[in-house]
Amino acid sequence: MTNERGTLFVVSAPSGSGKGTILSEVFKNSKNVFYSVSATTRKPRPGEVDKVDYFFIDKDKFSNLVESNGMLEYATYCENLYGTPRHEVEKKLNEGFDVILEIETNGAMQVREKMPDATLIFILPPSIKELRRRLKKRGTENDDVINKRVAEAEAEIRQAYSYDYILMNNELSDAINDFTAVLRAAKLENKKTKILIDEVLNDA
After folding, report:
1. Can you list the domains of the chain with their CATH numbers?
2. Strand, coil or helix: 101
3. DSSP run (H or E) holding 166
């Protein structure tokens, strides 16, 4: 590890795009990448572990974090609150880890507003038709649910224009390689390497 601050990566993708599989491979092969655990006010489900699956907190504590700018983003789903605690993300970044935050598009825009240096990555399916095929192949949802997910996916994809990098998961191995390339490329962006330019100019 170095003392250099890590980079925050925000990853979004429609359900069925293969985001989970890609991230699983990235974490398996990258030692310096940390997965950001979200906080929620819902009760733990059987087998879930606090601080591993989620930070399970009550609504008062969650609200206090929101009011004190302690959440990078948050949303309400099925009457429960979900969000990203700022403290844990900042802690890992300051330790030199790159942090990956896996959230939906509205949350990603909240993070961009609070942390402009974050790098946003959107993972596309090859097509809406292919996305529908993948969802049907799962065999876990009826046509009405699939139609709803496809409509939600189309709305999310329209938000992809606001992201820094767009990847397409057509062939999984290519998508994993592209994702890894983005992790490297983001470290070389001018906004993150101005200090290197200064060092070269000052060492005359």
Report:
1. 8-36+96-202 (3.40.50.300)
2. strand
3. strand 165-168
Tokens of 46: 């059987």
CA distance 82 to 66: 11
Count how many Cα atoms sit within 13 Å of the Cα of residue 110 in the half-sphere of its side chain. Answer: 18
Label residue 202 left, alpha or beta by phi (over 0 means left) and psi (-120 to 50 means alpha): alpha
In tens, the pLDDT along 153-178 reads 999 999 999 999 999 999 999 999 99
Give the residue among 145, 148, 160 at the shortest CA–CA distance from 19: 160
The pLDDT of residue 3 is above 90: no
Contacts 24+ apart (CB under 8 A), 106-113: 106/73, 106/75, 107/73, 107/74, 107/75, 107/83, 108/10, 108/12, 108/73, 108/159, 108/162, 108/163, 109/159, 109/162, 110/72, 110/73, 110/74, 111/8, 111/10, 111/72, 111/73, 111/84, 112/10, 112/162
190: confidence class by pLDDT, cuts 50, 70, 90: low
> What does the pLDDT look like over 6-59, one tens digit per residue?
999 999 999 889 999 999 999 998 889 999 999 999 999 999 999 999 999 999
Look up residue 70 and give its amino acid. G
Torsions phi, psi of 84, nearest 5? -110, 110
* Helix 128-138, helix 143-158: angle, nearest 10: 140
What letter would DSSP give residue 141?
S
E strand or H helix that includes residue 174 = helix 172-186
